[in-house]
Amino acid sequence: MPHPKEDKTVLIIKPDGVKRGLIGEIISRIEKRGLKIIALEMFMATKEHIDEHYPKSEEWMKKIGEKTLKNYNDYGYDVKKELGTDDLLEIGKLVRGWLIDYMTSGPMVKMVVKGIHAIEMVRKIVGPTLPSQAEMGTIRGDFSVDDSTAANRDKRAIRNLVHASGNQEEADHELLFWFAPEEITDYKRAEDDIMF
Ligand code: ADP
Ligand code: MG
Questions:
Q1: Model pTM?
Q2: Cα 1 to ligand 1 centre (Å)
Q3: Where residue 196 falls among pLDDT bands split at 50, 70, 90?
Q4: What number does the ligand 1 atom closest to the CA of 68 have?
Q5: At what angle do helices 88-103 and 58-74 cross, to 10 degrees?
Q6: I need a surface site. Which of 67, 80, 91, 132 has the fewest CB within 10 A?
Q7: Is 97 a domain residue?
Q8: Around 51, how many Cα atoms within 13 Å sit in the side-chain half-sphere?
């Protein structure tokens, strides 16, 4: 097994994060924790890019459906009445379509983050999918209150500021998909010797 310090993950600041002027704030939170940015670029994604970025499996779409259903139940909203279906896969498909529109609605910033347990640490800094349920102190909890019940009413994706690879499999795919090997650098940070 490689050293835990070698772990890498992908973080993307979504169009709402960029348009709200939060690029610096988001990067700063990553750096202050002791994680290193080893690739960074602003770009405009195509619909095809986003279609390839997110998993296409039924399992992934059903998980989205589950999270959505739970959110509706928590607040007493009727998912079937609002979305026309309570089928987990159908909900997942609907959301995937809105997601493609959202992620192509403006420039984004993509980066590779390296450091101890990078995938899990970045997810912790980002917070859970629904900003309305994210703890304050997380990026999603500090800068948004959006969730499925609100977003789906307006037929749009939840604007939750950032994407972060959810597990090793997603990180492996996203690293290869978004970055050429020569775009990923490395360097020693001044505090490396003191912190680790
Ligand atoms: P995460 O980004 O936390 O890994 P998922 O992978 O489950 O979350 O979902 C991908 C993205 O899809 C979310 O970040 C969010 O922008 C959007 N999304 C998820 N569920 C819904 C929903 N019910 N309605 C609208 N957008 C959603
Ligand atoms: Mg995800």
A1: 0.97
A2: 31
A3: confident
A4: 23
A5: 100
A6: 80
A7: yes
A8: 4
Tell me whether residue 14 is in a domain: no
On whether residue 27 sits in a domain, the answer given is: no
Whose Cα sits closest to atom 12 in ligand 1? Answer: 99
Distance in angstroms (rounded) separating the CA atoms of residues 121 and 76:
33
Question: Is 128 within a domain?
Answer: no
Of all protein residues, whose CA lies closest to atom 4 belonging to ligand 1?
Answer: 166
Please give the number of the atom of ligand 1 that sits closest to the Cα of 71.
23
CA separation (Å) from 86 to 69, 80, 97, 130? 8, 5, 17, 19
The three-state secondary structure class of 113 is strand
The sheet with strand 108-114 has its strands ordered as 36-43, 108-114, 8-13, 162-164
Q: How confident is the model at residue 61 (pLDDT cuts 50, 70, 90)?
A: very high
Burial class of residue 18 (count of CB atoms within 10 Å of its CB; 0-12, 13-18, 19+): middle
Q: Which residues line ligand 1 (CB under 6 A)?
A: 64, 67-68, 95, 98-99, 129, 148, 151-152, 157-158, 160, 163, 166
- Provide the annotated active-site residues: 163
**Ligand number nearest to the C-alpha of 154:** 1
Owning domain of residue 81: 55-104
| Ligand 2 center from residue 193 Cα (angstroms) | 33
pLDDT digits (tens, 9 = 90+) for 8-57: 999 999 999 999 999 999 999 999 999 999 999 999 999 999 999 999 99
